[in-house]
Structure formats: structure tokens, C-alpha cells
């Protein structure tokens, strides 16, 4: 990449695969389970986190030298809370139905460990540009997993993608040899999200043995 | 040169091939392998894993055959073609017409269950380079016995694939799984396709077709193949004689209806020392205790007839043993040596809680009338914890004794 130096490019690339916040660091699982039953909700959630983490990292990075370390968590919380409220209000104004689907989980972005984790681990010790790259890199890593899980859960659970039916009508009950599409209700329950995340982790680690820890 | 030595030579020649575990599985299925344990303590016993599995399958065969007859009998009875069978040996039950329907409906379930499950086991064995394990032999037989007769084959295949991969292979295969694979498969079906797994149409073959004929305008009576649990959960009368429940001449999953044959299978397992009598007995005790508590609540008048729990709560406590999948679960699933508790005291606690919780779920959650499945899966998760505390308790007791001796 000509635009970014090698070190900077790594900030974006690493969280996408080998240091993914969900599959490797196992952070942010709660929201990944709660809102991935529909692809649309997953995408909106991914964008929200992208905004909060990208802007938040820059803000914290700019303030990093004036924040007293004793109260840094409170300062970080205020920054996240402000950004989350902006996201929440924007959603309510322009996508009301969707914000009802996401319900408390937009507000709960505040408690998403990835965000506080990046503030603590990166933004407090790095300049704004690198912090921005790190923020959007991690948000992309989070969003990619969310979208993959949301894709499979909506496809197999409701037979739709982004609300558009793609797998046809459910089959009629005609006994043993009836064949065709039927909604898999289990896909819509949270345990299945955990299992899908687990399968992603499984696939990722069997492709890259270096990630396996004992 | 016999076939065996030829096969053995073939095996030696292809030692390094990737597909060898697949060949070995078939080879050891036909012949006793020459291989023995390489190191460590040796105990000379005749019952290896394969024999254990085969014994359980033998205990299951009567249930399977009965299930086939019952499938046909329920079908013909619902269509009004035959009268009620009276008693266990009635020829209205044991006849050729019933068996043909049963064979036609049940054998595909068995074939799909084994085909998909063993296929996955073979693939995993070859990929991971270990031998094919026999664990699926029993699971594959259990699965067709615990699903409704009209379960579509592809659903069964999907569920088996899920159960074997997520329930067993990810933990390391046979002997390492936390949850009973057969029940994982059943639970997957139950949560994924609830409308195909419950209600009054799925238990009797033909009920759905009849509904479609009625919808098309034909003047026929609808078939209601409600299970006893289903009826009771809706505060209706069970509608079957006690002895019919015991014999199993009632609608239900394929092989779980006949308490009589399950009892015989259970005795066979106890006699051959394959199944744990502690688990079976304590599970029955647990169920009876819970049933007695509910009966007590009803007779003390806390629950009125209008309550939605009344139907199941007022069921005589011992009748809970006869209806639903309780007997089948207790004898064939709860005793699974891999997922049950290992210590003797642990087995008592484990079994008791399986029975106790089964009846509790059955009564309090009419949406999941079959509590046995959920109770066993729950206790599977707790079994290692139970064992841990039993072992620690024993360690403490002996430490105390040691201290007393020293002092």
C-alpha cells in the first residue's frame, strides 16, 4: 500500500485476521450473540462501532497527555457515552424500526470491551493518525465477524437476506420424503450465534496453526 | 490363503495411505484386530468398546421392531381400518400390514442416521489420521428411535451432521464428548424445526396427508394423533388405558413408547453390566419423588382445575414413568458411560436429578413436554462437577482419618 507505511497498514490488517478482536481476543461476544439474527442489524451495528471506535480513538489520543491517569477510565467512558448517544439519536431519527430491533444494544456499545480495550491499550500511547487506523482496523475486524455470523443466521434461520426472501417458501408437511427449504428456528436463538462464532474460530485456527494456544 | 490374511497383507502394504483408518474400520468390524495395548497396565477382558456397543444395540432391537409395528398400527388405527388392539399379543397389532408400513417408514430413518453419521466419522478419522471409533454405532440406532415417524429425512441428516460434528467431533470424538450425541441431535431437531417435532400431527403417519385431503374439500375426519403428554399438558384426559401405556400401543416417537420392552432392555443392560443400575434406579426414584410432590400440591388444593399445570400435576406419580420418553431416556440415554457421572455416589446424585428435573420440566413447561431430553442434557453438563465434589469429599474424609491416626 502506497498510502500507508508497512507499520500503519499492519494496524488495519492485523485485527482483520490474526488478531481479530472476536475470534482471537474473544472480546465483544455479547453483542455478537445478541444482534446477529438479522444481517441488516449486524451491518448497522458494525458501522456504529466503526464510528464510535474510530472517532473515540482519535479523541482519546488527542487528549492522552492531559488526562490524569487516575481518572482516565471516567474520561474514556464519557467519550464513549457521548459518541454512543450520537449514534443512538441518529439511528432513532433516520432508521427508527432498526433502532427498535437493536434496542438496548446500541446503548450497550458503551460496555463493548473492544472499545475500552483499544482506548487503554492503544490510543493512550499513540498519536491520532495511528490511533485512528487502529480504531477502524479493530472495528472492521469486529464488523467482519458480525456480518459473517449475521449472514448465516439470517440466511438459514429466516431464509432471507436483508429482509428479502432468497430461499423460497417453507415446505409443506408431507412426511418422510418431503424435501425443500424450512426455516431453522435454532439459528435465531443466541446459542447458535455462539456456535457459528466457534466454527469461525475453528476454521481460522485450523488454517493458521500459529494461532492455536494450549 | 484365507480372506483375513489377504486383508491383513493388504493393510500392511498400504500402511502409509491416508484412507487406511477407513479400511481398518471395516476390517475390524469383520475380524478381531491383532493389535493389543502397547504399554502400561494390561487387563485381559473380552468386552472392548465394540462389544459394549453391540450389547446396547441388542437391547435396542426389540424397541426398534416394536416401533415398526406400532408405526403401522397407529397409521391403520387412525385411518379407521382396524380396531383397537386389546393387550400386548393382539393380532390387530402384530400383523404384516403394520410391519410393512413400519419398515417403509422406519428403515429409511435408520439408514440415513447411520449413513450420515458414519460418513462423518470416516471423514474425520481420515482427516485426523486416527482410527474410526465405534461410538456412533449406538447413537445411530438411538436417533431413529427418538424422532417422530414423519421426520423428513433431510432434516434428520442435517441434525445428525450437527450432532456428530458439534456435539462430538469438536471435543475429540468418542469418549471425549460432554453431551450425549443422540440427545444433541434430538435437541437440535426440536429447537430448529419445532413444528415438525411437536403437535398432534407428527406422531402418526398419515395425519398430515389426511389434513390436506380435508383442506382440499374431502369429507373425512381429521386425525388427531396427540401424545399422552400433549393431551395432559392441555388439561385433557390421557385417553389411553394404563396397560396400553405400559405395552406402548400409543402414539409417540418411533421406539420410545413401549415401557415393557424398554424395561426388558434395561434388565438386559444391567445383567450384562453395560448399563448402570444405580443411574436407572435413582432416576426412577427422582421422578417418583417429584411426581409425589406434585400430587401432594394438587391434593392440598393449591392448584385448581383451571390451572394450566393441573393436567400434568394431577397425573398419578407412577404414571409419569409410563408416558413420554422418560423410560427410554433413563435406560438408554442417561446411562451413557461417557456423559454420565463416573463415581458410584455421583451416579446416584446424577440419576436422581435426571428423574427429578425431567418431571419438573414436563409439568412446568408445556411448550417442552418432553423434559427428559433437556434434563439429561443439563445433567450431562453437571456430571463432571458432581464427580469432582464426590472425589474431593472422599479425599477429605481420608485425610481426616489419616490425621486422626497420626495424632
From TrEMBL, chain A:
Q: Name one GO molecular function term.
A: oxidoreductase activity, acting on NAD(P)H, quinone or similar compound as acceptor
- Does the record bear Nucleotide-binding in its keywords? no
Q: Which residues cross the membrane?
A: 43-62, 74-95, 101-119, 131-152, 185-203
Q: Which residues form a coiled coil?
A: none
Reaction equation(s) it catalyzes: a ubiquinone + n Na(+)(in) + NADH + H(+) = a ubiquinol + n Na(+)(out) + NAD(+)
A Gene Ontology CC term for this entry?
A: plasma membrane
Tell me one GO biological process term: sodium ion transport
- For whether the record's keyword set contains Cell inner membrane, the answer is yes
Stated EC number for the protein is: 7.2.1.1
The record's comment on protein family reads: Belongs to the NqrDE/RnfAE family.
- Explain the purpose of this protein: NQR complex catalyzes the reduction of ubiquinone-1 to ubiquinol by two successive reactions, coupled with the transport of Na(+) ions from the cytoplasm to the periplasm. NqrA to NqrE are probably involved in the second step, the conversion of ubisemiquinone to ubiquinol.
In Swiss-Prot or TrEMBL terms, this protein is called Na(+)-translocating NADH-quinone reductase subunit D
TrEMBL record, chain B:
The yes or no answer to whether the keyword Transmembrane helix is present is yes
Keywords attached to this Swiss-Prot or TrEMBL record, sorted alphabetically, are: Cell inner membrane, Cell membrane, Flavoprotein, FMN, Ion transport, Membrane, NAD, Phosphoprotein, Sodium, Sodium transport, Translocase, Transmembrane, Transmembrane helix, Transport, Ubiquinone
Give the catalysed reaction(s), semicolon-separated: a ubiquinone + n Na(+)(in) + NADH + H(+) = a ubiquinol + n Na(+)(out) + NAD(+)
Q: Where in the cell is it found?
A: Cell membrane
Listed under GO biological process in this entry are:
respiratory electron transport chain; sodium ion transport; transmembrane transport
Cofactor needs:
FMN
An example of a Pfam family matching this protein is NQR2_RnfD_RnfE
Q: Which GO terms describe its cellular component?
A: plasma membrane
Main enzyme class:
translocase
- The keyword Nucleotidyltransferase belongs to this UniProt entry's keyword annotation: no
> What PANTHER family does the record point to?
ELECTRON TRANSPORT COMPLEX PROTEIN RNFD, NA(+)-TRANSLOCATING NADH-QUINONE REDUCTASE SUBUNIT B
This protein's assembly is summarised as: Composed of six subunits; NqrA, NqrB, NqrC, NqrD, NqrE and NqrF.
What does this protein do, in the record's words? NQR complex catalyzes the reduction of ubiquinone-1 to ubiquinol by two successive reactions, coupled with the transport of Na(+) ions from the cytoplasm to the periplasm. NqrA to NqrE are probably involved in the second step, the conversion of ubisemiquinone to ubiquinol.
Q: Please report the name of this protein according to its UniProt entry.
A: Na(+)-translocating NADH-quinone reductase subunit B
Organism, scientific name: Ichthyenterobacterium magnum
Taxonomic lineage from the root: Bacteria, Pseudomonadati, Bacteroidota, Flavobacteriia, Flavobacteriales
Gene name, per UniProt, is nqrB
Amino acid at each position: 500500500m502506497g498510502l500507508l507505511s508497512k507499520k500503519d497498514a499492519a494496524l488495519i490488517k492485523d485485527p482483520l485476521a490474526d488478531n481479530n478482536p472476536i475470534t482471537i481476543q474473544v472480546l465483544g461476544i455479547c453483542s455478537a450473540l445478541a444482534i446477529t439474527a438479522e444481517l441488516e442489524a449486524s451491518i448497522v451495528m458494525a458501522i456504529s462501532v466503526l464510528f464510535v471506535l474510530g472517532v473515540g480513538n482519535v479523541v482519546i489520543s488527542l487528549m492522552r497527555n492531559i488526562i490524569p491517569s487516575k481518572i482516565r477510565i471516567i474520561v474514556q467512558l464519557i467519550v464513549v457515552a457521548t459518541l454512543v448517544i450520537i449514534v443512538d439519536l441518529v439511528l432513532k431519527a433516520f432508521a427508527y424500526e432498526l433502532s427498535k430491533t437493536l434496542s438496548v444494544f446500541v446503548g450497550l456499545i458503551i460496555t463493548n470491551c473492544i472499545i475500552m480495550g483499544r482506548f487503554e491499550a492503544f490510543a493512550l500511547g499513540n498519536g491520532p493518525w495511528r490511533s485512528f487506523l487502529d480504531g477502524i482496523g479493530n472495528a472492521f475486524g469486529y464488523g467482519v465477524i458480525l456480518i459473517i455470523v449475521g449472514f448465516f443466521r439470517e440466511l438459514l434461520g429466516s431464509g432471507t437476506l436483508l429482509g428479502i426472501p432468497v430461499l423460497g417458501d417453507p415446505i409443506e408437511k408431507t412426511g418422510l420424503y418431503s424435501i425443500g427449504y424450512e426455516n431453522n428456528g435454532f439459528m435465531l436463538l443466541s446459542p447458535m450465534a455462539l456456535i457459528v462464532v466457534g466454527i469461525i474460530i475453528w476454521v481460522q485456527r485450523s488454517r493458521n496453526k500459529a494461532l492455536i494456544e494450549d | 490363503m484365507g480372506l483375513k490374511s489377504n486383508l491383513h497383507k493388504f493393510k500392511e502394504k498400504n500402511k502409509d495411505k491416508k484412507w487406511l483408518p477407513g479400511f481398518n474400520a471395516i476390517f475390524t468390524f469383520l475380524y478381531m484386530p491383532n493389535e493389543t495395548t502397547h504399554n502400561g497396565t494390561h487387563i485381559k477382558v473380552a468386552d472392548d468398546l465394540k462389544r459394549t456397543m453391540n450389547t446396547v444395540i441388542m437391547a435396542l432391537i426389540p424397541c426398534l421392531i416394536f416401533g415398526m409395528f406400532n408405526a403401522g398400527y397407529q397409521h391403520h388405527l387412525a385411518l379407521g381400518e382396524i380396531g383397537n388392539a386389546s393387550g400386548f399379543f393382539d393380532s390387530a397389532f402384530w400383523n404384516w400390514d403394520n410391519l410393512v408400513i413400519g419398515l417403509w417408514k422406519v428403515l429409511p430413518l435408520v439408514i440415513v442416521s447411520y449413513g450420515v453419521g458414519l460418513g462423518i466419522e470416516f471423514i474425520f478419522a481420515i482427516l485426523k489420521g486416527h482410527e474410526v471409533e465405534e461410538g456412533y454405532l449406538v447413537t445411530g440406532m438411538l436417533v431413529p428411535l427418538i424422532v417422530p415417524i414423519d421426520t423428513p429425512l433431510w432434516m434428520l441428516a442435517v441434525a445428525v451432521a450437527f450432532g456428530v460434528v458439534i456435539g462430538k467431533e469438536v471435543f475429540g470424538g468418542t469418549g471425549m464428548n460432554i453431551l450425549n450425541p443422540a440427545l444433541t441431535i434430538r435437541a437440535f431437531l426440536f429447537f430448529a424445526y419445532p413444528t415438525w417435532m411437536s403437535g398432534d400431527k407428527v406422531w402418526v403417519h398419515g395425519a398430515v396427508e389426511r389434513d390436506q385431503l380435508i383442506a382440499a374439500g374431502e369429507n373425512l375426519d381429521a386425525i388427531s394423533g396427540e401424545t399422552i403428554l400433549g393431551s395432559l399438558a392441555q388439561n385433557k384426559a390421557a385417553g389411553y388405558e394404563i396397560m396400553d401405556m405400559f405395552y406402548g400401543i400409543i402414539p409417540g416417537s418411533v421406539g420410545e413408547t413401549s415401557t415393557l420392552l424398554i424395561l426388558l432392555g434395561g434388565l438386559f443392560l444391567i445383567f450384562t453390566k453395560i448399563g448402570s443400575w444405580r443411574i436407572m434406579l435413582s432416576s426412577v426414584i427422582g421422578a417418583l419423588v417429584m411426581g409425589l410432590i406434585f400430587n401432594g400440591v394438587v391434593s392440598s388444593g393449591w392448584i385448581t382445575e383451571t390451572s394450566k399445570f393441573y393436567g400434568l400435576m394431577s397425573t398419578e406419580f407412577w404414571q409419569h414413568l409410563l408416558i413420554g420418553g422418560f423410560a427410554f431416556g433413563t435406560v438408554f440415554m442417561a446411562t451413557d458411560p461417557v456423559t454420565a457421572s463416573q463415581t458410584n455416589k455421583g451416579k446416584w446424585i446424577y440419576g436422581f436429578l435426571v428423574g427429578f428435573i425431567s418431571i419438573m420440566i414436563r409439568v412446568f413447561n408445556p411448550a417442552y413436554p418432553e423434559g427428559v431430553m433437556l434434563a439429561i442434557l443439563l445433567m450431562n453438563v453437571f456430571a463432571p462437577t458432581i464427580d469432582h465434589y464426590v472425589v474431593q469429599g472422599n479425599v477429605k474424609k481420608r485425610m481426616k482419618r489419616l490425621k486422626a491416626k497420626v495424632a
